[in-house]
Prior knowledge:
Blueprint: H1 2-24, H2 26-29, H3 37-56, H4 60-64, H5 70-93, H6 121-137, H7 140-169, H8 171-179
Amino acid sequence: xxxxxxxxxxxxxxxxxxxxxxxxxxxxxxxxxxxxxxxxxxxxxxxxxxxxxxxxxxxxxxxxxxxxxxxxxxxxxxxxxxxxxxxxxxxxxxxxxxxxxxxxxxxxxxxxxxxxxxxxxxxxxxxxxxxxxxxxxxxxxxxxxxxxxxxxxxxxxxxxxxxxxxxxxxxxxxxxxxxxxxxxxxxx
Length: 188
């Protein structure tokens, strides 16, 4: 039972961080002329991903209460790591971070720190969080839904964001794309 409590504390911390980021960075959003729709697409996909087991599978709650295996505990560790990665990626973006997509005038392109390895470490952290939750579910179909729907929304948002960044930074962003991976270091 203790593992389930730790799991829900981690999920709560993960969600609280996202609520904080959305609240704390709204004033900056109003200064951009960026895109907002993808934020709502991601929110809907994230809710479906997190709640998919409970919504679509009647025996999910009973099976979730089974003792946590090493794989389920690894999922919690991955979720904790995703929280840390999310914080670091936002801190490294600094004033360039916004929950809505857009580039403010004279905003520099951030290509240092984690951004030397991947172009979107914040989205990588969110994807890792869903993989961690899915592993903690330890049920095949709910786990697939928990990862597939949010990751599809993340990929959609990345595509929109990369268009905005390429439009704003031109050749500088295209050169950055050539030397860094989109979301998975050294692979994708």
